[in-house]
Design a protein that fits this description.
The two termini are about 30 Å apart. The protein folds into four domains: about 160 residues, Rossmann fold, CATH 3.40.50.2000; about 150 residues, Glycogen Phosphorylase B (Rossmann fold); about 150 residues, Response regulator (Rossmann fold, 3-Layer(aba) Sandwich), CATH 3.40.50.2300; about 160 residues, Glycogen Phosphorylase B (Rossmann fold, 3-Layer(aba) Sandwich), CATH 3.40.50.2000. Strand 1, helix 1 and strand 2 form a beta-alpha-beta unit. The chain is of the alpha/beta class. Strands 3-2-1-4-5-6-7 form a seven-stranded parallel β-sheet, sandwiched between helices. The chain has a six-stranded parallel β-sheet with strand order 10-9-8-11-12-13, sandwiched between helices. It contains 23 helices and 24 strands.
Length: about 700
């Protein structure tokens, strides 16, 4: 199982100036049973890192762009290549929403600070949204968890989404006889940390008890609190290992914060080294040690009194030191086991769930595309219906939803486009059907928020899209089609194209080629067995929805076809969709195509690798000798003896005339084309190819287009 950990931007994952989050992450990873499969990501200007499994994310800042957003976007680019099973985000709730748009597996959020003081979790709405977008939220103190649920009307239904996991430190053997008369303070030297109270108090203590000294670790460039005494040692910032080593000698450690400490690493570390700890009752500090002395009030006098009691009563001081050490249990190993247990609960569930889906191999599929219900069977031979047939033959349970029919039938004053009704219909159908996957075809009107909501319902949900229009640079609607494909790509696991994915302007992950599927219940003709009266069939689909030619509509292919007819007077062409000859649909199309020996597959725009309109399935599938531009490289897919490639206009004219005469070879190639296309490019195999990618199982079929 692969795990990616994302640190806050500019969190110094470096021994030179490591923050509390970095130390926690590094120390618990070293004890984790998953340590060999964990990668840490962050951003720091330091060159030395805490561990080898760290990747420093560097990027160029852009004017008027959020640095945090750029940071997360660049992390996602790297993560897409790793494809982790789990992402753990530390202390940045705002990152969750950016990540969830692009990542659909397990997602944890660790809080190390007050949730109400952080972007992305300040409001109740933000926090509910977080709960709906993560699998687990882990708090470093009960105080932090209570703060998160502040102002909730009912938190009970959300509690199971949260866990408590305190920070940790190491534990070593302590010789209490070697304890020295040292009082320590570790942290930022500012008023929030109570350094002013400590400073005022320690000067008085050291004046009254000159055999005692004090060690102070930390700095604060923004706030100057200067305290001086011959027995007061100011060490400045030191590495964590140095401080831990020094704490072995410390007798009393002070943590007198004014601000609400989320937990308090300082008191934790002091306890692990057998120091008597005095703390203020702020935030999660009381949770760091059950035997710590808690200040009744946060003042110099109160602190002085508690320190003096311990100095005067050596027996009490030693007892407190030993109890502090004895009851300390939050070691790296202990806390790492807690984290691993949380991980395993989800990773195992995820594995079992996916295993059961794959083992069963009977899926519930919600298929969203235009099924053209409103055209009364005129557009019955479409790809959506072909794929449906394939899914059903494979034994799957398919529920269809015709997006454009729903939009067309539900345009109202309050919903002029009908899109609101479509989103509601999708959500209601999903809730009633509970599909394992959603298959979308050219479903441009589905909102990303709708797909996100469905993923919130079921994080195991798989979503894919298929797209048949040309996407290459010299194709019609090139920009528009590329935008359509990437519109919801953040919520889509796989994209299937009838073009080579390398032709996409905007490259997307998990994009694959699929052939236009044929279907044995649609492609029922065997034209090579009959004496057809016409030579060449060609049809354009002008006015698909109107059903008739649209005035003023021009297709660039018309010029090519007219020239072909003029230059080949001995060839009998059967042409539809131009020259005022209406296009044919439904059964009329089947009647028309049954009368021709040969078919021309001429798609709009310049020819490109593997691209063809869906007409290719009808021509080859019904046994017509089919001609296609050699630049499509279709012979790579179907073989050279199954289709006729032409290099240019003259070559096409020559080959049409050649095969009109050589009927024996023409019929043989046509038969090969039909046999191969229906055997290897049928809707059952194409459908199983899509599902095998979506659910990561090994198909029983051979996908020859992948060779």
């Amino acid at each position: 199982m692969k795990i990616s950990i994302l640190l806050p931007f500019k969190e110094n994952y470096s021994p030179n100036y490591a923050g509390a989050v970095s130390l926690f992450v590094n120390d618990t990873i070293n004890e984790s049973k998953h340590k060999d499969s964990i990668n840490v990501f962050g951003n720091t200007s330091y060159k030395k890192f805490l561990s080898k499994n760290y990747t420093n994310i560097q990027f160029k800042k852009k004017l008027f762009s959020s640095t945090n957003k750029l940071y997360v976007e660049n992390f996602i680019k790297v993560e897409n290549k790793i494809n982790s099973d789990l992402i753990e985000v530390h202390n940045r709730p705002s990152y969750i929403f950016l990540i969830r748009k692009n990542y659909h597996k397990l997602l944890f959020l660790f809080f190390h600070n007050d949730p109400l003081q952080m972007n992305g979790s300040r409001s109740v709405q933000d926090r509910i949204k977080l709960l709906n977008n993560v699998d687990k939220i882990i708090f470093n103190s009960e105080w932090c968890r209570q703060r998160f649920f502040h102002s909730f009307n009912d938190k009970s239904k959300y509690l199971n989404k949260t866990e408590l996991c305190y920070q940790s430190t190491s534990k070593i053997k302590i010789n209490f006889n070697k304890k020295q008369k040292i009082i320590s303070f570790v942290g930022k030297l500012n008023k929030a940390k109570g350094y002013d109270i400590f400073g005022q108090t320690i000067i008085k203590i050291l004046d009254k008890y000159p055999d005692w000294s004090s060690s102070v670790f930390g700095d604060e460039p923004r706030e100057k609190l200067n305290f001086r005494h011959k027995n007061l040692n100011l060490f400045g910032f030191k590495k964590n290992d140095y401080i831990l080593n020094h704490l072995k000698k410390v007798s009393i450690s002070i943590v007198c914060s004014r601000w609400e400490e989320p937990f308090g690493r300082t008191s934790l570390e002091a306890s692990s080294r057998g120091a008597a700890v005095i703390i203020s009752k702020r935030g999660g500090l009381p949770e760091t040690s059950s035997v710590a002395v808690k200040l009744k009030e946060l003042s110099s006098q109160s602190l002085f009194n508690e320190i003096e009691k311990l100095i005067k009563d050596k027996k009490k001081l030693l007892t407190l030191q030993k109890d502090s050490y004895k009851k300390f249990k939050l070691t790296h190993k202990y806390v790492s086991k807690i984290i691993d247990k949380i991980r395993d609960q989800f990773l195992i569930k995820e594995k079992i769930s996916l295993f059961n889906i794959k083992k069963n191999k009977i899926f519930k599929i919600l298929h969203l595309t235009n099924f053209n219900r409103r055209f009364n069977g005129r557009l019955q031979y479409n790809t959506g219906r072909r794929l449906n047939n394939g899914f059903v033959r494979l034994g799957h349970n398919v529920l269809t939803l015709s997006d454009r029919d729903i939009i067309h039938d539900n345009k109202k004053i309050l919903d002029p486009t009908g899109k609101k009704k479509l989103q509601n219909s999708i959500i209601l159908n999903y809730k009633n059907f509970k599909p394992d996957c959603i298959v979308m075809g050219h479903a441009d009107s589905i909102d990303g928020d709708t797909l996100s909501q469905l993923r919130d319902e079921n994080k195991h949900l798989r979503i894919c899209q298929w797209f048949l229009d040309p996407v290459h640079k010299n194709a019609p609607d090139y920009i528009k089609n590329n935008k359509r494909i990437i519109k919801n790509s953040n919520n889509i696991d796989f994209t299937f194209l009838s073009s080579c994915p390398s032709l996409l302007k905007n490259k997307i992950n998990n994009s694959f080629f699929i052939p236009n599927p044929a279907d044995k219940s649609f492609e029922i003709l065997k034209n090579y067995e009959t004496n057809c009266p016409n030579d060449v069939f060609f049809a354009m689909s002008h006015g698909v929805h109107r059903g008739i030619l649209k005035d003023g509509k021009y297709d660039q292919r018309e010029k090519y076809i007219k020239k072909l007819i003029r230059n080949n007077s001995k060839i009998k062409f059967d042409i539809y969709g131009m020259n005022k000859i209406q296009p044919v649909w439904g059964n009329d199309f089947l009647d028309a195509i049954s009368k021709s020996k040969m078919g021309l597959n001429l798609s709009r725009g310049k020819a490109a690798k593997y691209y063809s309109s869906d007409r290719i399935a009808q021509l080859l599938g019904n046994g017509l000798l089919t001609f296609i531009d050699e630049r499509t490289l279709f012979s790579d897919l179907i073989g050279k003896n199954s289709i006729v490639h032409y290099s240019n206009f003259d070559d096409l004219s020559y080959k049409i005339n050649k095969y009109k005469k050589d009927t024996k070879i023409a019929k043989k190639i046509a038969k090969n084309g039909r046999d191969i296309y229906l055997k290897h490019f049928n809707s059952t195999i194409v459908g199983d190819y899509m599902l095998s990618k979506l659910f990561d199982y090994k198909s029983k079929f051979k996908f020859i287009w992948e060779k």
